[in-house]
Amino acid sequence: MPVTPLTAQAVADLVGGRLSGPGDVALTRVRSLAAAEAVDLSLCVGPRWLPALAATAAGAVLVPPSHAEAPGPACRIVVADPMAAIAIVAEALQASSVGAAQVDPTARLGRGVILGEGCHVGAYAVIGDDARVGDRCVIGPGVVVEAEVRIGDDVRLDPRVVIHAGTILGDRVHCKSGATIGGPGFGFLSTAAGHQRIPQVGGCILGADVEIGANSCVDRGSLDDTVIGRGTKIDNLVHVAHNVRIGEHCLMMAGVGISGSTRIGDRVVLAGQVGVVGHIEIGDGARIGAQAGVISSVPAGATVSGFPARPHRAFMRAQAALYRLSPHVDALERLVGGDDDA
What we know:
There is one protein chain. It contains four helices and 40 strands. The protein is an alpha/beta fold and 342 residues long.
């Protein structure tokens, strides 16, 4: 879908920067210095970027004050933090590509649906009875929003997202393709006759500015609600089980799995492929290293890694000791004939 260009002057106004050079340069994309063309906005962050800045074909470049006079394109926007500024511009350009508000003729809206102003509903999307959708939302192709779901303003649901009944999405939530929000959790009662499903009757609440990655799943609560706090960002292929409560401004990378009824504080970081057992607490500001297995509660501010997860420094010392021990084990095996096949 076409993007509405931003002029260099408009970019400077948007990011609060100082424009140097022509203000009428039209920009439609953000790209790296090496790949940029005349319609692109790029950025230079530090000294190691200066050779690429001098050679780039970008139409305009975001630069820090220290590089305001460095060789490169004539059109540049001077800002304190080029990385933060280009993120703002990229978001603005992406929003402009959505197109005019419309409901595709193949979309199906149930009885009593309330659709806010300026919404875009894509092909074959389905919105169930009595659902409420806020202003300026983008409901992508093939999205399913079940009955009585509540969606705030400026929400973006990419193609084939499923939002189950009992879910509330705050303002500016973004769910990427294939995400499933508010589906039944994995709850069974094991008996001699087999595994009997326990009905999952809780809800699922996502706060404002939450992002859910592609093919990630956030289950509804079994009795209470599953809750994800404001500003938390969840990567692709993450599973959040029933009754989990996640605080504000957390980061959870690809492949994370969080078992039921776990409580996670604010500004917690879970690196890739972390596994967390159920019914424990992870305190505010904790950091969990990649592939860690968290089997007990983690205090606020702690950094842990390994399996079972332990303080990061202790885990690294244990690993180092193991590697130092390995040559001695080989020597002992040779001494007692441990490598003798006879």
